């Protein structure tokens, strides 16, 4: 099978790495926004993960005339009524993982261990310039610790503890994280339908 090429519409290097690994088995080569100089920043003006992923994927597909997948994702914390949700990247104002983690811990400072459930969510949208679109979702349940653990991953990974592994996502290898993560789950669902989608 000849190699196929898509653009992953992300500026987040942590996501880009995970996508490269997850797509490797599919004979799909990947570029990300870091490989393009001239593209404008796409504002995430939607009110849901799916709207934002669709905005990113559609805009970049039109601009590059290539097939594009976009990921909109975030952390949903039950005790905070679903915050930070679609605002996860900019929770503390400015795309700063450490500041976001500090704000999350501050907001949860009075919340006991038994009420610190959270979930990571991803919606993936894959589109072609002709508009052919495929949407999948993935989630993983966990709990927010009171201090960070681990150096791997990105974003809220050092605070997100996963019961099945008894460690945080930042203590997992890439392979372990991909095997249970919201992004890994959403992308595996997408890959099942990828060949059909590619032909349309
Ligand atoms: O929009 P792009 O350019 O893809 O990059 P982004 O970082 O802004 O991505 P989102 O708009 O989808 O916001 C997602 C945020 O949710 C958090 N997040 C998502 N997936 C995560 C993961 O696997 N581990 C830790 N934090 C994650 C992290 O703070 C991300 O910045
Ligand atoms: Mg973003």
From TrEMBL:
Cofactor(s) needed for function: Mg(2+)
InterPro entries linked to this entry: dITP/XTP_pyrophosphatase (IPR020922), ITPase-like_fam (IPR029001), RdgB/HAM1 (IPR002637)
BP GO annotations: nucleotide metabolic process; purine nucleoside triphosphate catabolic process
EC number: 3.6.1.66
Protein keywords: Hydrolase, Magnesium, Metal-binding, Nucleotide metabolism, Nucleotide-binding
UniProt catalytic activity: XTP + H2O = XMP + diphosphate + H(+); dITP + H2O = dIMP + diphosphate + H(+); ITP + H2O = IMP + diphosphate + H(+)
Binding site for Mg(2+): 43, 72
Enzyme active site: 72 (proton acceptor)
Any one GO MF annotation of this record: ribonucleoside triphosphate phosphatase activity
GO cellular component: cytosol
Cofactor note: Binds 1 Mg(2+) ion per subunit.
Binding site for substrate: 10-15, 73, 154-157, 177, 182-183
Protein family: Belongs to the HAM1 NTPase family.
Subunit-level organization: Homodimer.
Described purpose of this protein according to its UniProt entry: Pyrophosphatase that catalyzes the hydrolysis of nucleoside triphosphates to their monophosphate derivatives, with a high preference for the non-canonical purine nucleotides XTP (xanthosine triphosphate), dITP (deoxyinosine triphosphate) and ITP. Seems to function as a house-cleaning enzyme that removes non-canonical purine nucleotides from the nucleotide pool, thus preventing their incorporation into DNA/RNA and avoiding chromosomal lesions.
NCBIfam families, per the entry: PRK14822.1, RdgB/HAM1 family non-canonical purine NTP pyrophosphatase
HAMAP family: Non_canon_purine_NTPase
The protein, known as: dITP/XTP pyrophosphatase
Organism of provenance: Secundilactobacillus kimchicus JCM 15530
